[in-house]
Amino acid sequence: MRLNFALLCQQFARYARTERGSAAIEFAMVAPALFYFLMGIIEVGVIFFAGSMLQNATDDTARRIRTGQLSGALTAVQLKTDICSEVDGLISPSNCAANLVVDLRDYTNFSGSSYPSVTNANGTLNTGNMKVQATADCNVVLLRTYYPWNIMTPLLSSLLQSMPGGIYLLTSSAAFRTEPYTSSSTC
């Protein structure tokens, strides 16, 4: 029995001196932080890409309003349909139509324009302040769009959220003067 115990102690001492497997143990200690940062980089990249898609779609719709292709008494549904037809990939058309919020304001000049806040004190989106006004040629128009983006990585939601509930608010806007697209315009 004594011989077996001595042999066992020698084998244990030999394993304690070797460094085989130390890289695996060190990686196991560092891996959670590495994957956390990696997921953060991916999440921020996806949010940036979705925001760029929304800005591009807003710019295209603003161009149609500026040139008179979309004019007069527009509705929020028309604007959502036009913007959501441009957004493809990360935001599905059905989610876009259900969650996109638009604000279209028309002013006679830049000095008379005002831009009310779109968020409540608790950080939620104030849809009561949103309007869709009729546009006319030679007027100043402000088009703003908002899309609540759900943060996918659970541990990062508290760091990246701009609204309660792990939601980041994607925003885009375009301010411009419409062109004289009617024959009776005097800009």
Structural features, described:
- This protein has 187 residues and is an alpha+beta fold.
- It has one domain.
- Helices cover 44% and strands 16% of the residues.
- It is built from five helices and three strands.
- It has a three-stranded antiparallel β-sheet, with helices on one face.
- Helix 2 packs across helix 3.
- The longest helix is centred in the first third of the chain and has 45 residues, at 22-66.
Strand order of the largest sheet: 1-2-3
Strand and helix order: HHHHEEHE
The count of β-strands is: 3
Largest sheet: 3 strands, antiparallel
Counting DSSP H or I runs of 4 or more residues, the number of helices is: 5
Give the structural class. alpha+beta
- Estimate the mean pLDDT confidence: 87
Regions with little confidence, pLDDT below 50 for 5+ residues: none
Task: Give the tags.
3 strands; 187 residues; rod-shaped; 44% helix
